[in-house]
Design brief:
Distance between the termini: 113 Å
CATH class of the largest domain: Mainly Alpha
Shape: flat
CATH architecture of the largest domain: Orthogonal Bundle
Structural class: alpha+beta
CATH topology of the largest domain: Hypothetical protein af1432
Strand content: 15-25%
Number of strands: 18
Radius of gyration: 50 Å
Strand order of the largest sheet: 5-4-8-7-6
Helix content: 40-55%
Number of helices: 29
Length: about 650
């Protein structure tokens, strides 16, 4: 038997030196050699990762080499061993693989007598290498000195003298524990995928793209077609098709894009017993062993097709229901023609079904636009809109319930709700419309809104009557109420109070002193200063206002001003002694306006202040009587109204 050639990795950047080494080794009459040359250390080590070699010849003077340190630091374990089993040289990687503490300790190990090596079978392989003078490769479990279990892969190569005697044994070893685990994990993963493949309820086939050969099939595939797995693996995908030419042309014409998903909604296949049945195919391309393949998931859609036929048969029954519907229903075909136009639609539009069937939808739409808006549209623009929608299925109002006004062919105006939907078809889209005549309901709603408006006006007239009655009683404040209402509303807008709350602010300002109706005349109309006892009664007027108005539902949101407009920012106001933002915003706004109007108005007990003096007072009371932020807004508002610069704070 001819000895196999020894595989030699030569890491040498000098071509002449490499040729010289090959020449020297070729003079060995007992061995033959095959050389792999790498000119750099890094590429040589990469080659060593990918292939196995019996020996490595390394030029320690390479530019990227570190001399003898390269031998020490290379990640492949390298040992030199005498034929008697004594280790003479060892690098760091070998120490790490064997779990030995140092090179000195390792050199004391004899491969023929060291128990862990004997147990692992390495000693026996070493003895076989020495006795046969041939390389030995193996992998064995090994327990290091520290008790770590690993799997070692190694190659023992005898180095022979020219006379054929063994000089030493060169050993290359590697810890392949992680690699083995990865291989086991991969095997388990493949097993899991195989189980999933078999458990899938759809028929699954792995098919070669070029030849159409079935490479793999699951149990569901055998069950669906009636062939055994062995029979299927001898067949091509065209053998399963009832239209083989189409199957072959589609397979070859489909561009092969890895991970590209394809769906074929309908094909006809044939079972082993000759039954032809409809299927749906979903496929994905990928590379398998370097060649393009696709996995095809095939589903029998016989029941679905039967259901579609039943659905088609029931369309007439549904058409009857459409005709009996109280809502107008129209359906526009892909070409813009009217397919459905029920009786309710005739009654709403005054367009008969027989006429609608001969009109495109854009003509009907133009007829129903009220006459004053008709000049803004044209049949061409409406046709363009509908044509695009029939192609794409996109309309701005799609799915929304819209309220629109239409004009019938007799000129009658109607208010309707319209909901538009689309139906996907093979030729594009159909557009459906559900229309409900709500003209009578709209008239009723408008009448109700008018009644509510009249009621609100009555409420406001009543409130103004109360306010006027108070002005008549308290003549010193005559005109005060209307002035503070106007200014309060302006300041409320500046402070960002929402428009929905303006009505409540206005009503609150209008009724701010309504509680004085409960104050006796001899106190309310007294020209002199009030006594402490009289002040206690006067300061109850916000409470009187609250007790009077809180029983009236529509006035409850307006109570903040009548109840709290005498509270102060620093907490020393009345009647509750609220402080800061505990005081409602509307009351804080009104407090400034109320004081401002009082200061610049004549009273029986004093003359009106100048606006400058009043503004100075309000500035001084910022943070005490008044909210500082509102004071700032108020000053800007007065400055704007009087066209004078704001004095600031």
């Amino acid at each position: 038997m001819t000895k196999p050639a020894m595989q030699i990795l030569m890491i040498e950047d000098n071509e002449l030196d490499a040729l010289l080494l090959e020449e020297i080794l070729s003079q060995d009459t007992l061995n033959s050699f095959e050389f792999t040359l790498s000119e750099r250390l890094d590429s040589g080590l990469e080659t060593l990762h990918r292939h196995e070699f019996d020996a490595i010849l390394l030029d320690l003077g390479l530019p990227d080499s570190q001399g003898l340190e390269t031998f020490v630091k290379v990640h492949i374990g390298i040992l030199s061993i005498t034929k008697d089993g004594q280790i003479t040289d060892v690098n760091t990687a070998a120490l790490q693989t064997l779990g030995s503490p140092s090179a000195e300790a390792t050199k004391n190990i004899n491969l023929l007598t060291f128990p862990p090596l004997i147990e692992a079978g390495i000693s026996a392989d070493f003895q076989d290498c020495v006795e046969s003078a041939r390389p030995v490769s193996a992998e064995h479990p090994y327990v290091t000195k520290w008790g770590k279990s690993i799997i070692v892969k190694y190659q023992l190569t005898p180095v022979l003298s020219p006379g054929g005697k063994i000089i030493l044994v060169q050993a290359i070893m590697e810890d392949i524990t992680e690699r083995k685990r990865a291989e086991e994990t991969l095997h388990e993963s493949e097993q899991q995928y195989r189980e999933l493949f078999e458990m899938e309820s759809d028929a699954l086939f792995l098919i070669d793209n070029q030849a159409g050969q079935i490479l793999e099939a699951n149990g569901a595939g055998s069950q669906l077609y009636g062939y055994s797995r062995a029979e299927l693996l001898r067949m091509k995908n065209t053998d399963l098709s009832a239209e083989p030419e189409k199957t072959q042309s589609v397979t070859q014409a489909t561009p092969i894009i890895v991970e590209n998903l394809i769906t074929i909604p309908l094909r006809w296949h044939r079972k082993k017993d000759g039954t032809v049945f409809p299927i749906e195919i979903t496929g994905r391309f990928f590379l398998h062993d370097g060649r393009p393949v696709h996995i095809a998931a095939i589903r029998d859609i016989t029941e679905r097709k039967r259901a579609e036929e039943i659905l088609h048969e029931s369309e007439e029954r549904f058409r009857t229901l459409i005709e009996q519907s109280s809502e107008g229903i129209a359906l526009v075909g892909e070409a813009g023609n009217i397919l459905e136009w029920n009786r309710a639609m005739e009654q709403i539009t005054d367009i008969l079904q027989t006429k609608a069937a001969h009109l495109p939808v854009w003509d009907i739409q133009l007829q129903m636009i009220p006459s004053e808006y008709r000049s803004l549209h044209s049949a061409d623009s409406i046709k363009t809109l509908f044509s695009k929608a029939l192609q794409t299925g996109n309309l701005p109002q799609l799915g929304k319930r819209l309220e629109v006004e239409i004009q019938t062919t007799s000129g009658e105006r109607k208010t309707v709700t319209q909901t538009i939907f689309t139906i996907k078809t093979a030729g594009g889209y159909r557009i459906g419309s559900i229309v409900l005549d709500i003209t009578e309901r709209k008239h009723a709603e408008e009448a109700l809104q008018q009644a509510n408006q009249n009621l609100r006006l009555s409420y406001d007239a009543t409130i103004e009557g109360w306010s006027n009655a108070l002005d008549l009683r308290d003549k010193e404040t005559e005109g005060h109420t209307q002035r503070v209402i106007d200014l309060t509303m302006e300041l409320a807008r500046e402070m960002g109070i929402s428009e929905a709350d303006w009505i409540h602010v206005r009503r609150g300002a209008l009724l701010h002193d309504i509680g004085k109706m409960g104050v006796p005349d001899h106190i309310l109309l007294k020209p002199d200063e009030l006594t402490d006892e009289e002040w206690q009664i006067m300061r109850q007027h916000p409470v009187y206002a609250y007790n009077l108005l809180s029983r009236i539902d529509f006035l409850r949101p307006a109570l903040d001003i009548p109840r709290y407009h005498h509270e102060k920012w620093d907490g020393f106001g009345y009647p509750d002694g609220l402080k800061g933002e505990q005081i409602p915003l509307a009351a804080r706004i009104f407090a400034i306006v109320d004081v401002w109007d009082a200061l610049i108005s004549d009273r029986p007990y004093r003359k009106a202040w100048s606006e400058k003096k009043a503004l100075d007072y309000i500035c001084k009371q910022s943070g005490q009587y008044f909210d500082p932020k509102i004071v700032e807004k108020f000053l800007k508002l007065i400055s704007k109204k009087t066209n004078t610069p704001s004095s600031g704070m």
